[in-house]
Amino acid sequence: MAAAPTQIEAELYYLIARFLQSGPCNKSAQVLVQELEEHQLIPRRLDWEGKEHRRSFEDLTVRVHYGMGLLLQLYIEADLQNYL
Fold it and tell me: 1, 22, 50, 56: which has the fewest Cβ within 10 Å?
């Protein structure tokens, strides 16, 4: 069994799914979202006491507003770092 993803990995999976939803790969996005929920790979939320709770992909999408271009922006910044 694979190790649990880090917070950054979970957020990256989320961004990839959102990126796929915004283009022509809706079926791929649906499969990815199902697997994210099945394997509990969606970033957890913290309550006011600091306790972690599971959430659905839809709940995360409604409550967290990443710009749709964030994944592309992160890629460009990472690629630019290779040249520095």
Answer: 1
CA distance 13 to 4: 13
Collect all residues with Cβ–Cβ distance below 8 Å to 56 and sequence separation of at least 6.
37, 42
CA 34 distance to own-chain centroid: 13
For each of the chain's 84 residues, which pLDDT tens digit applies? Answer: 567 777 778 888 888 898 898 889 999 999 999 999 999 888 888 888 989 888 888 888 776 656 556 666 666 666 666 655
Q: pTM above the 0.90 mark?
A: no
